[in-house]
């Protein structure tokens, strides 16, 4: 009986959580010195076919929310307020 209740509780908890991935990248016209260093280093160790590399940030966010639209609004707000610098960065949100 306890096992059944524990499984139901875990199932309910999973239903109340949504998971999103957020990828933050520099805008196209913004210089990327870290990407340039990585590119140069890889080329120096023999990977000559590389044309360009741009670095970014990746976040996985789990949120206690049952409504997908509300959850995405909250994630979007997080990005605008903290995770991305909207002057120089773009971001993309995907549900996992």
Describe the structure.
There is one protein chain. The chain has one domain (16-95): 2-Layer Sandwich (Mth169, Chain: A), CATH 3.30.1280.10. It is built from three helices and three strands; from the N terminus they run αβαβαβ. The chain has helices at residues 2-15, 33-44, 68-83; strands at residues 17-26, 56-64, 89-95. It has a three-stranded antiparallel β-sheet. It is elongated. The chain starts with a helix and ends with a strand. The mean pLDDT is 90.
Low-confidence regions: none
Tally of strands: 3
- Please state the CA-atom Rg, rounded to the nearest Å: 20 Å
**CATH architecture annotation name:** 2-Layer Sandwich
Helical proportion, percent range:
40-55%
* Approximate strand percentage: 25-35%
Oligomeric state of the chains present here: single chain
Tally of separate domains: 1
The CATH topology turns out to be Mth169, Chain: A
How many H/I helical runs? 3
| CATH superfamily membership | Phosphoribosylformylglycinamidine synthase subunit PurS
CATH class: Alpha Beta
Q: State the end-to-end distance.
A: 32 Å
**Major sheet: size, sense and barrel closure?**
3 strands, antiparallel
Order of the strands making up the biggest sheet = 2-1-3
Q: What structural class results from the helix and strand content?
A: alpha+beta
What is the arithmetic mean of pLDDT?
90
Shape: elongated
What is the helix/strand order?
HEHEHE
At a glance:
This protein has helices at residues 2-15, 33-44, 68-83, and strands spanning 17-26, 56-64, 89-95.
């Amino acid at each position: 009986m306890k096992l059944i209740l524990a499984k139901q509780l875990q199932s309910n908890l999973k239903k109340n959580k949504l998971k999103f991935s957020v990828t933050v990248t520099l805008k196209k016209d913004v210089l990327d010195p870290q990407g340039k260093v990585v590119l140069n280093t890889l080329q120096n160790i023999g990977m000559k076919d590389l044309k360009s590399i741009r670095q970014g940030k990746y976040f996985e966010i789990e949120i206690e929310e049952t409504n997908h639209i509300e959850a995405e609004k909250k994630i979007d707000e997080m990005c605008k307020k903290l995770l991305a610098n909207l002057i120089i960065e773009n971001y993309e949100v995907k549900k996992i």
